[in-house]
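Same chain as my last thread, 96 residues:
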Amino acid sequence: PPDAKVIWHGVKQPGPPYRFNLAAGERISLEVARQGFVTRRVVLDGREPHVAVGLFTPQAARAAAARAAAAASTGGAPDPLGESPQGPRLRVRSGL
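reply #2:
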């Protein structure tokens, strides 16, 4: 969504679209934020030319964490924020 913010080194990046030129082997960490949604940290390494970042509402994040805790108690432990959130997505390009 156009009102999402991408933050790198504490600075809001211009966009969308968001583009980052990464050298071979370079990794950067971004924060993706939108009012009313849980901020996500995303690491780009240039292997994927396009990255879609989904954001969870606080309620959906709590539900995903509860599902992950239940899975961990049975031997599996998926990343609760690794699930596909329902709602807006932000597209980020890297390795251009």
